[in-house]
Design goal:
The structure is a homodimer of 388-residue chains. With 388 residues, chain A is α/β, with parallel strands linked by helices. Chain A contains 15 helices and 16 strands. In chain A, strand 2 and strand 3 form a beta hairpin. Chain A is globular and about 60 Å long.
Chain lengths: 388, 388
């Protein structure tokens, strides 16, 4: 395990916005990039070829879910997550920490790690920084994330400081364990991807001095990339944008910067404008299944009665299969009739919209027209909220 | 409305098995044909292009469901069912009668028709033979079915005789109404497909003399094709095969013969051997969603623990996307994790298996090797049941 499989190249900048690409053992990813969330080894309602068609170059897998079912050891025996799920392109896995904090039962956090009960069967588990590394080594993702402590919002400065310091200690332990694995001290861990990279995570809540310290400490550890965690948890959006801007510029310039869990189409554009290279979010997939569709002309709820006799496509600007083939009237009918096909068609559209947006962002940065693009996009986006 | 859009050509026979094709206003269908069931204007878990890829040339829509939601008048305003759902190929609609008998609440059958309450909202409705024709004219399917009375199994000979006689009277009313529509006496019905054909339905339960009378009376009415209804409702399979054989040979030779609601892969092969040209069944789609997969080597339940670490495809003989891309281990994981993608991948495989089987049947008839094909297929099929 060498970590040599990973490398980031910055192609061009336009203001603070960056256009680049990173290479992984499973191929290249153009940045700024959006990663559809494939929680349990499947992006809900999608087949892999639908993702390829929509333009996905990388997907995210949730370590918590895959660890509990079908299990990281079983996946390692299948040759790793890529082979198990049949997705030959890059995969990033989270550490499992976020789901332990949000999904698991009866969790107890100590300096050692997180004790919790499975939300599936109540079985007891202990997730330490080292175990989070080992599990992701078995999964064999191209990018593994460190285990961090997820701070609730709002939190006092003291709580935030204590939690952030613990996250930094955990990050060091994660890096040490990864370096052991790379050095061959696997202790029986079946490493599925020798070129796996590891990203640190900056915490600090909404306290910029804590964010600054966390960024400096995290950068000093020497990861292949850096994420900003703990945002989009309830703070006002302008606070989030401000923290992103002030944190991103303190991260290593020649590494990708990943904003975890964001966001809306506006968030993508606004945070690219603040120096972010990578995003993931359940919004396009989850909202699709609930009938909320993103379009260039506005966000629409397809269940709205006014679409019952609307023969137009979801988005006249969109070239996805759903928009090429079906009317709003049909999609509304499928949604009202609770047909599974509704989720599939809606998800394909929303992901196409997100991934097309990333493509347009990348082109605008290359052409140094990103600011114009951003103004126009946000003007459209402000119409979006009228119908949501 | 002329009915001229429809025509059946018999290409070759091999024993009683027939190879042919029929033309409709929306294209040709090779027979023997299997029609995936698209209950509410969508074959569950499929997108239309998946159906095309699997080899579907025609799908079935359920009039009862579409009449209640979104409504036949709305569909007519959209230009008919084909345009509404974005499926440019042939569609057959049933009459709605079967669902009135199996799904609706508080139904009362009189000579006039069937009074019932919607299973969706309890609203009262009256389905007469004439209304079944009008509704299907609005839907604009390529083949419309007459309204018949669905006899419960078991039924006494007297019950079966009374019911069969009523179905023949209803069939005559359906034909009269269709001829009125074709003659331009639409009474405001918005006819969506001027070339729509109409098929009669032979009833008679398991009483062959009633079947013979029904076949003769139905043939005399002068439909474009003939169906055998009221089978697969609980009678032993050899009784069904016997009724199919003795009824099919009394149906017009130069029209397609459609066995409604059957069946298993074995049923398809056995009933082609008895002269059937068309089939529909929810088995491949419904069973797929329940994890039961049809393969050339046996029927398997993908949730079975023995597939947890099985890296092979569902069916090594199958070239569908699911089999090309994914292992049994992954499909089992998706099923156990209740991922929507499981239903989509499983359905694509099962429909591919069914439609490939039809293709092999057609080739075997053309080559006059159908009997050999049938023996080999049934030998494999007898292995199927071991795991079901």
């Amino acid at each position: 395990m060498s970590g040599n499989g990973f490398g980031f190249t910055l192609h061009s900048t336009d203001g603070v916005a960056r256009r680049g690409e990173f290479k992984t053992p499973h191929g290249l990813v153009q940045t700024p990039a959006f990663m559809p969330v494939g929680t349990q080894g499947s992006v809900k309602a999608m087949r892999h070829r639908d993702l390829e068609e929509a333009g996905a170059q990388i997907i995210l897998g949730n370590t918590y879910h895959l660890y509990l079912r079908p299990g990281d050891e079983l996946i390692a025996r299948r040759g790793g997550l890529h082979r198990f799920i049949g997705w030959p392109h890059p995969i990033l896995t989270d550490s499992g920490g976020y789901q332990v904090f949000s999904l698991a039962d009866r969790r107890t956090i100590t300096e050692d790690g997180a004790e919790f009960r499975s939300h599936l069967d109540g079985s007891p588990h202990l997730l330490t920084p080292e175990r989070a590394v080992d599990i992701q080594a078995r999964l064999g993702s191209d990018i593994a994330m460190v285990l961090d402590e997820c701070l609730a919002y709002p939190a006092s400065r003291d709580e935030a400081a204590r939690s952030t310091e613990r996250s930094v200690r955990w990050a060091r332990r994660c890096r040490s364990r990864l370096l052991e694995l790379r050095g061959g001290r696997t202790d029986g861990v079946d490493v599925s991807n020798a070129g796996q990279a590891q990203f640190g995570i900056v915490q600090g809540g909404v306290f910029q001095d804590l964010r600054d310290e966390s960024a400096a400490s995290t950068a000093a550890i020497g990861f292949e990339g850096c994420a900003i965690g703990g945002l989009g948890v309830g703070e006002p959006v302008d606070v989030m944008y401000s923290v992103v801007a002030d944190t991103a510029r303190r991260l290593p310039e020649h590494q990708p910067r990943y904003l975890m869990g964001a966001g809306t189409p506006q968030d993508l554009v606004e945070c690219v404008a603040r120096g972010i290279d990578m995003f993931d979010c359940v919004l396009p997939t989850r909202n699709a299944r609930n009938g909320q569709l993103f379009t260039s002309e506005g966000r629409i709820n397809i269940k709205n009665a006014r679409f019952a006799e609307d023969d137009g496509p979801v988005d006249p600007q969109c070239g996805c299969y759903t928009c090429r083939t079906h009317s709003r009237a049909y999609l509304r009918h499928l949604y009202m009739a609770a047909e599974m096909t509704a989720g599939a068609l809606n998800t394909l559209h929303n992901l196409s919209f997100y991934l097309d947006t990333m493509q347009r962002i990348r082109e605008a940065i290359s052409l140094r027209t990103f600011d114009t693009f951003r103004q126009e996009f946000l003007r459209s986006a402000s119409r979006l909220s009228l119908d949501s």
